[in-house]
Structure formats: structure tokens, C-alpha cells
Design brief:
This protein has about 375 residues and is an alpha/beta fold. The chain folds into three domains: about 200 residues, HUPs (Rossmann fold), CATH 3.40.50.620; about 55 residues, SH3 type barrels (Roll), CATH 2.30.30; about 80 residues, Elongation Factor Tu (Ef-tu), domain 3 (Beta Barrel), CATH 2.40.30. It contains six helices and 17 strands. A hairpin with a 7-residue loop joins β13 and β14.
Length: about 375
């Protein structure tokens, strides 16, 4: 039916996505995107095709969902399914994701590199690649759905995945509306156990592979150490104070904290305390009881809409983190072009730097970045 560039991470979801695309009659080309620092050779990419101008020989090492082992798994799945497979070097592009991550934490904000990776790379640079090989679509293994209206020129609706526990529509809110017609999300209509069962029935080596949990470039799982190492130079250490203004401790750097954090504060006050606010100028980390996290309103900028932007106030569901539950809300664009969201019930852990994504039931309306 159509040539499709498929992002293959070496996990079970993109592996089964390749099979589903074949089953639908498409011509998938498996692409593994190299992100990490060069080390040992990950896989042989010597088959330099003139159709693949971005292909480049390089090496890689273990790095979350982008490791040498993952590249090998993706290649074996492609071989098993008898589809073309290539590795492309996006190290320079991915460096921008890392720089963003470091800058945000250094300014007391909580970044979301997965959203940025989707915006800039998976549904950005990968479309450049698709154009270079005359592919009509780009596909991924995200758990989300696209609903296309028959005989309609309107863009498809981006919907939550059928598996509510695996839904990834939140991290796709920043995709350009103009690209929705060229995106395929083959696994979004399935429950995760069914995807694993399909992989096992197909004899794919990724059937039982664990899902990637950590940020792919922070292999230690300790984001504070990663940020400190990448920043170098000036320390961001300072005081830990309560919401009442009492100094109760010292910290090694604001990059180690995020709003709503409870563990690792380094102070004992007899009752649970949480990070309520981070003050980058004074380098103070402000902590308080859980109720001090409550927020009824938030502002967001850098908006992206997947529907025509609503005129005036409207009701919606607002989700403030990837793993949080959507909350009933009223939203409206203010005269400055920012999005003002008023939550019907208080929300806890609203963190500057995270995305707020708005839904109409299961449909993604759009969203922005919390100020």
C-alpha cells in the first residue's frame, strides 16, 4: 500500500508494529536512531544505500532505549520479518535534547525530554528521512490512536491508546497538526499483553523484553548527577527552607529536585515534607506539607493545538504529567497568548517545565508548557 519509515527501538512495541504494518500491506523500513556517545560497534551498517542519505557508520554503547543491545535486537527483528533495517546517526540532533534537559533542571524546572524527542526527532527529523526515501508515512510503537474521518480533509484526531495503563498520547501533544495525516500508530488499538502475545507467537526475541523506564541518556537513573556533570563550573547548592521561612538544611544543587518530590530531601522534620517551590535565583528549595502543593490554577505557554484553537473559555480534562490522572478543568487563552487552566479540584505537584495536555474525553486537543 505505502512505504513507511518505522522507528524501531529494539523493544516489543515497535517490533510488533513492524509486523502489523506488513499485515496491512505496507512496505516498512526499520530505522534505529543512534543517540549516544560513540563506543563499541553496535551493528553493521555497511550496506550504504543511495536512498538513505542520512545513514552513517558509527558506534554506540548501552544507553537506555538506544543501546548497542537494543540496536542488535531491532536488527534481528527486522531480519526475522524480512524488512529493510538501517541505523541513522542523530547524535548532533539529540545533543539539543540533552542541553535542554540540563538547562531546565539548572533553572529549577522539570523537563520532559520524551516530549521534546517526539517533537524534534521522531516526528521531526524522521520525517526529513522519510521524505528522502519517498516514504508516505512515519510510524512508531506509541500507545495512542489516530482516528481518520472518511472523505474529510480535516486532520485525524489523536486519541488515547486503548490500554489506559500504557497510554502515551500525552507525550505526543507537541506533534505538528499538519503531520497527523502522515503518522501511523499500529499498536495503539491493542492492550499491551496482546502485543506481547503477538510477539511470542511470531517468535520475536523482544516478546519478553522489559519496557524502558528511565530517561534513555541518564543510564545511572540519577538525573542530578548527570546534570551536574554536564554543567560543570558553578555550584547550584543552597538552603532548604520550610514554607514558613525556617532554614532546615543545605542541599548540593537545585538540579536534584522537582516539585512534589518527597524522597531524598536530606532533612527529617517528624512529618512528611515535599518540595513545594524551587527558587533558582536564591538557590533555595522550599519544602512543606502535602497540602501546600495544592494548585487550582496554572499558566502555560508555547502552545500546540491538534484542533482548531477554541475561542473563549472551554471545559476539558487537563493532565499535568505523563503518569498523572486527567482532571476536570476550565481553560482559556489569555490576551498574551498563554493558556490559563483552572482546575475544578486542586491538583498536587504542578511543576514548571512539565507539559499540561488538554483532552476532550479521549481526544487530545493540545497543550503547552507550564510556567
Amino acid at each position: 500500500m505505502a512505504r513507511v519509515v518505522l522507528a524501531m527501538s529494539g523493544g516489543v512495541d515497535s517490533s510488533v508494529a513492524a509486523h502489523l504494518l506488513l499485515e496491512q500491506g505496507h512496505e516498512p523500513i526499520g530505522i534505529f536512531m543512534r543517540h549516544g556517545e560513540e563506543s563499541v560497534q553496535a551493528c553493521d551498517v555497511s550496506d550504504q544505500s543511495p536512498l538513505l542519505p542520512l545513514l552513517e557508520r558509527r558506534a554506540d554503547h548501552k544507553q537506555g532505549c538506544c543501546s548497542a543491545e537494543d540496536a542488535a535486537d531491532a536488527r534481528r527483528v527486522a531480519d526475522h520479518l524480512q524488512i529493510p533495517f538501517y541505523a541513522i546517526n542523530l547524535k548532533e540532533d539529540f545533543r539539543g535534547i540533552v542541553d535542554y534537559f540540563v538547562k531546565e533542571y539548572s533553572q529549577g524546572r522539570t523537563p520532559n525530554p520524551c516530549v521534546m524527542c517526539n517533537n524534534w526527532i521522531k516526528f521531526g527529523r524522521l520525517f526529513d528521512y522519510a521524505d528522502s526515501v519517498e516514504a508516505e508515512f512515519v510510524a512508531t510503537g506509541h500507545y495512542a490512536r489516530l482516528e481518520r474521518e472518511v472523505d474529510s480533509e480535516r486532520p485525524p484526531a489523536l486519541l488515547r491508546g486503548v490500554d489506559a495503563g500504557k497510554d502515551q498520547s500525552y507525550v505526543l501533544f507537541g506533534v505538528k497538526q499538519s503531520l497527523l495525516d502522515r503518522i501511523l500508530l499500529p499498536v495503539g488499538g491493542y492492550q499491551k499483553p496482546v502485543i506481547r502475545q503477538l510477539a511470542a507467537e511470531l517468535g520475536l526475541r523482544t516478546a519478553g523484553k522489559r519496557d524502558s523506564q528511565d530517561i534513555c541518556f541518564v543510564t545511572s537513573g540519577k538525573h542530578g548527577d548527570f546534570v551536574r556533570q554536564r554543567r560543570g563550573g558553578e555550584s547550584l547548592a543552597g538552603e532548604i527552607i520550610t514554607t514558613a521561612g525556617k532554614v532546615v538544611g543545605q542541599h548540593e544543587g537545585i538540579e536534584r529536585f522537582t516539585i512534589g518530590q518527597r524522597r531524598g530531601l536530606g532533612v527529617a522534620l517528624g512529618e512528611p515534607h515535599f518540595v513545594v517551590r524551587i527558587e533558582p535565583q536564591s538557590r533555595r528549595v522550599v519544602i512543606g506539607p502535602h497540602e501546600h502543593l495544592a494548585r487550582h490554577q496554572l499558566l502555560a505557554d508555547r502552545l500546540n493545538w491538534l484542533v482548531d484553537p477554541p475561542d473563549g473559555p472551554f471545559e476539558c480534562l487537563a493532565q499535568i504529567r505523563y503518569n498523572s490522572s486527567p482532571q476536570a478543568a476550565h481553560a482559556e487563552r489569555n490576551p498574551d497568548g498563554q493558556l490559563q487552566v483552572t482546575l475544578v479540584e486542586p491538583c498536587f505537584g504542578v511543576a514548571p517545565g512539565q507539559a499540561v495536555v488538554l483532552y476532550d474525553n479521549d481526544r487530545v486537543l493540545g497543550g503547552g508548557w507550564i510556567l
